[in-house]
Amino acid sequence: MGLERIKIFVEGIVQGVGFRPFVYRQATKENLKGCVANTSHGVEIEVEGEPEALDRFVHNLQSQAPVLARITNVRVTEIPPSGDAEFLIRSSREDDIRSTLISPDMAVCNDCLNELFDPQNRRYRYPFINCTHCGPRYTIIQDIPYDRPRTTMRCFSMCPECEKEYRDPSNRRFHAQPNACPVCGPRVWLTDKTGEVLACDDPITEAARWLHEGKIVAVKGLGGFHLACDATSEDAVTRLRRRKGREEKPLAVMAPDLKAVETFAEISAKEKDMLLSPRRPIVLLVKKRPSLLAESVAPRNKYMGTMLPYSPLHYLLLEGFRALVMTSGNLSEEPIAIGNREALERLGEIADVFLMHNRDIYLRSDDSVTRFMGGLPRPVRRSRGYVPVPVFLRKKMPSLLAVGGELKNTICLTKEDQAFLSQHVGDMENFETLHFFQECVDHLRRILKIEPVAIAHDLHPDYLATQWALEQKGIPHIGVQHHHAHIAACLAENGRDDRVIGLSLDGTGYGDDGTIWGGEVLVADLASFQRVGHIAYHSMPGGSAAIQEPWRMAVAYLYEVYRDDPEADKGERYFFRWIEKMPFVKTIGPEKIRTVVRMLQGNFRTPQTSSLGRLFDGVAAMIGLREKAAFEGQAAMELEMGMENGREEGYSIALCEKEGKIVIVPDAMIRQIRTDVLRGIPVGKISYLFHAAWIRLFVQVSKMIRDRLGIRSVALSGGCFQNRFLLENLCSELEKEGFEVLTHSQIPSNDGGLALGQAVVASYRLA
Asked: Looking at the DSSP assignment, which residues form a beta bridge with residue 714?
């Protein structure tokens, strides 16, 4: 039988993951001739040989691909034999159209770790050790195809030994673009807060000494700077909080290994797998009590955000520590710092010393955060290790740019059947974050070579992202309602486009009637939605001030219930008598409460909201858990954490029909909660009865809509579904009633996933 030749196009994450050396080894093993090259489409292979060998090669190409590769498409065509004498890896070439996928940054692999701690290895204790299976990718890529001259490693010329590894197909550093060693690669040094270099033999060991002494060290990592301190030192953590301006929001910790994690946190087998995965996210783990770590790491919180080292530098720095706080190198609400000079300017009042290096970070990327719920890892923040892996869509779509919302902002660009979400941008509340937002838009557009035909945005006119979108000239703007975008995002990541019952539950979203939505029951698909139900409107005294001060919502819910009671005296002083024994009243004081009551009486600065998130906040304040919030969602989070186990059905919630919609009226619940507080019922039981009531209520409403419209699928989205009890129990109860339940597992249910929903809705509207 004669020789045959085939051309193979491989698409997916196939650059920067050792794919070409893998192809070379497979081809030479089968005695095939030809070539392989990176292109802007992916990887192109030509192989010539016996037909049986070609069949084995194509099969192994997909079944034995490198661990970091993700093949999305393989196309094989027959071409005439050319009589090649060998198999070659050819230089990359750039085409006009770019469709290759880029690997995220990945944790250092075990082979490199073994070399890192081997005194006989020439890379012993070298903090930039990497190979084709690990190390920086997305944060150092300036353009594609992915070759060294298009990365921030372009300024480091490889020494002869590194060059030899790079050219040797049998070496795992064959065509590893960040390949380096102590002779030719990046280096580390230690400075004080003025930038003055501190003389020492080993900067990493010296930085560790500062940490042991209770100091704060700014550490340059893969996607930006961390602020580090000893997680077992109450003084050090408290000092870091004060300097960073982060009053109570939990801080992430990094432990050297699983054994160390098990000393301060409960950990399941699935959580271990996630901690050890090459993506190395922060995983929210249940604290052990008593904890060996400082209480101020995560005050009043059952969970500890925990990660394992993912760079060689981290492994070296963590020697001798049980855990280090590793929080984003920024002032609260600003983007993470990435440049050395930038870090000195922005972090100089926080850090005592700086552990610097000279491998530039091209694009900042925070650590990702996950939480196991319902047996799956659910992203809370999707960033390093996950971006820029796309969400694969049900069908091809026009190229669009979606700019997300105000909080937990991400942007999304679509290209054919792929949706590329950016890394976590942050809360769009200042110029610095807006600048980072623009960087993300420009970078994704350039490396993916996407020219969007329209821009999708939230309806809220005051959002910076919306204002930015509307300022872009010469391109259509498509406004997408916030809660429809949530449900559309859930449908898109589940590969669905049919009509579902959508439970879209969160804190804030601009409604198409000009009010603030957040407790929404929709019937929706990817093109449109109908609001078939919602929580009854209640006042938000002071507008956004009620988010920072949940006691305002407590007063609003209690006053509106009191005012509607036909047997209640209507004077202001009688209302005070009615609530005076509630625990928050003494803390807040009568004058502030009186001001809020007068706002409610005069309808002054009291926007209306249907938000479930605000109701969670109000109840948390009502029962004395949290009167003021130091960060977004804190009151609702503490209400969940304070819950006891129970079996009761929960409080009463009424339903009524108004203008063809199901209106959910929680007034009876508010009365029952007040009564239970005054009776001295434990807050844990009140929290359980509150949660249980909403689960029963949403099952009831879903059944009503199924009976009317015949829809048997329910999509759950919005920030409230970061509540583990709510998500797991609502899924369980809906499934018992025969519903198919769609949830998030690729992108966050919070506003970090909003841009995906905006993009697909806008695409369907264009179509």
From this structure: 501, 741
Give the pLDDT confidence of 361-370 residue by residue, as tens digits.
999 999 999 9
Domain ranges within the chain, ordered by starting residue: 4-102, 104-186, 200-357, 385-496+749-766, 534-742
Strands laid side by side in the 225-230 sheet: 188-192, 353-357, 217-220, 225-230, 324-328, 253-254, 303-307, 282-286, 369-373, 376-381
Contact (Cβ atoms closer than 8 angstroms) between residue 236 and residue 243: no
Q: Percent of the chain having pLDDT more than 70?
A: 98
- Give me the mean pLDDT over the 481-498 stretch: 98
Can you give the pLDDT at residue 678? 96
Q: Does domain 4-102 have CATH number 1.10.1520.10?
A: no
User: What is the rounded distance in angstroms from the CA atom of residue 412 to the CA atom of residue 390?
Assistant: 10
Q: How far apart are CA 184 and CA 155, in angstroms?
A: 10
Degrees to nearest 5, angle at CA 46 with 40 and 52: 140
CA angle 423/429/431 to nearest 5° reads 85
Q: Output the CATH code of domain 104-186.
A: 3.90.870.30
DSSP symbols for 423-488: PP-B---SHHHHHHHHHHHHHHHHHHT---SEEEEES-TT-HHHHHHHH--SS-EEEE-HHHHHHH
Residue ranges in 633-682 assigned as alpha helix (H): 634-641, 667-679
- Per-residue pLDDT of 274-323, as tens digits, reads 999 999 999 999 999 888 999 999 999 999 999 999 999 999 999 999 99
CA angle 343, 106, 391 (to 5 degrees): 105
Closest C-alpha among 219, 175, 212, 449 to residue 354? 219
718 in Cβ contact with 486 (< 8 Å)? yes
One CATH from 3.90.550.10, 1.20.1050.10, 3.90.870.40, 3.90.1150.10 for 200-357: 3.90.870.40
Cis preceding linkage at 566, omega within 30: no
Contact 100, 71 (CB under 8 A): no
Cβ pair 47, 54 in contact under 8 A: yes
Q: What is the pTM of this model?
A: 0.94
Tokens of 376: 């799956």
Give alpha helix (H) positions in 589-682. 590-602, 612-622, 634-641, 667-679
Closest CA to 409 of 423, 399, 419, 420: 423
**Within this chain, domains 385-496+749-766 and 534-742 share the same CATH topology:** yes
Question: Closest by alpha carbon to 765, among 420, 511, 400, 442?
Answer: 400
Domain 534-742 coded CATH 3.40.50.150:
no
Question: What single-letter DSSP state applies at residue 719?
Answer: G
